Predict the 3D structure of the following.
Amino acid sequence: MYSREQEIEMIDNPEKWPQHPLLPIKLGRGRGIENNGVIIDQPRIEGKLMIRKGVTMWHSPEDINSAECEWFDSTEALVDAGWMVD
């Protein structure tokens, strides 16, 4: 588990992601696929960060691309909502 600042630093620097272009994330300490997600290294739209919910990086690209999206105004908002690097 990283500090808030370390979470933000990792998310904001895709070149540090071990499984680039995907970064696995999880919602708090919850268990179950609904608490998993991935961030895909792609340009932000209007500065917003998108995550794909309910998938892991082990899913097929088709599954990841069709997964539910959630948008955040910033990396800080994502971390404050309880998402963290997995």
The helical segments are 4-11, 61-66, 75-80. The mean pLDDT is 89.
